Amino acid sequence: MKTKVLNLAGVLYEGEAKSVNIATKSGEVTLLDHHRPLMSVLASDSRIKIEREDGTKEAFVSKSGFLHMDGNNELTLLID
Amino acid sequence: MESIHHIRTRLASVKNIGTITKAMEVVSATKMRRAQSIALSSREYSFAALRALTDLLRYMPEKALLQHPFVAGKKARTPITLVVLIASDRGLAGAFNGSVARAADAFFKKDRAADPEGRESYRLALVGKKLASYAQKSGFSVVETFTNFGDYATADEVLPLTDMIMDGYRRGKWERIVVVSTHFKTTLAQFTVTRQILPMSLDQVRETAREIVPEHGRFAELRDSFAPDAGDEALTEYLFEPSPERVLSSILKHLVAMQFLHLVLEANASEHSARMVAMKNASTNSKELGDTLTLSFNNARQALITKEMIEISSAQVAAN
To answer: Do B241 and A36 touch (CB under 8 A)?
Structure first.
């Protein structure tokens, strides 16, 4: 899925991802391809773990934020 | 006529000042361009937040948005408005700081006229040292002064400001937040804007997101390249966690933070360009002054030579 991690300073991550693991206010979620559309508020100080197709990983820490998985298999994470 | 020595000293100092103002002009021009490009970097973020909001509003009755405290506002018997003035820590920027103060005065006058019973009271929050004396003169108490935002504000620097304001708003310390700042139109034209941030109106937020791309000059071509409202066309069944209301709060909070950062960044760009223009004028003036001084220097030197010649020839005549 197309994944974007954005903060006010710019784009932190933009690209394909196989899975994204995040702690939200209502529990930890792992988003895979074609996850059902979801908007969720991230837990404070949560770690965002992104895994690409080739197995390489990327991680970000967010103080607060929210995620937006839309119907076109695009995931956007807005973080502070 | 002034003595040659005196003119020479003045000429040297005028030239010195000219060099300094010229350097400041060039530095400000570079800083202005950098501030502009930094301001652009929050664009993706604001569009993403607006898109999420558009999607969310499709599944939520509009009433829910209109009743949200960030949008509906609160009623109080003696409402307090927090006026945030965004100016600079430094001077030598032409009318930049002064016009923010003037715009604030205009706002107070207009707002008081709309409130004949005089129930509204005001507090100030300042960005930049330069407006401290204005605040003192205005007689309103200053809640906090934020300084050292740097040449280009970063999200981290603006965060204390945003936090302080949103926290106070949520706890009912203030019923309304108004920002007086400078809008960067072009290098040569900036004008002050007075904007109500909270309670917010969606049109205002969209307008801010659109303004992230400057109207003229570099980057202007990006302005129409992205419609911030282009949400998901196909109706998709969304899942909202923990609840649509919580998601709405989170999005609105991010949009307010985005607006603040953007206002400060735009003020940064305006400050640098105002300083650039002011320094350009100063350089031109010092060049003109230098030319006049050079002329009178030449005059004085020639007069001295002529005088000596007369003395020599009259001495010769006397000797013959």
So the answer is: no
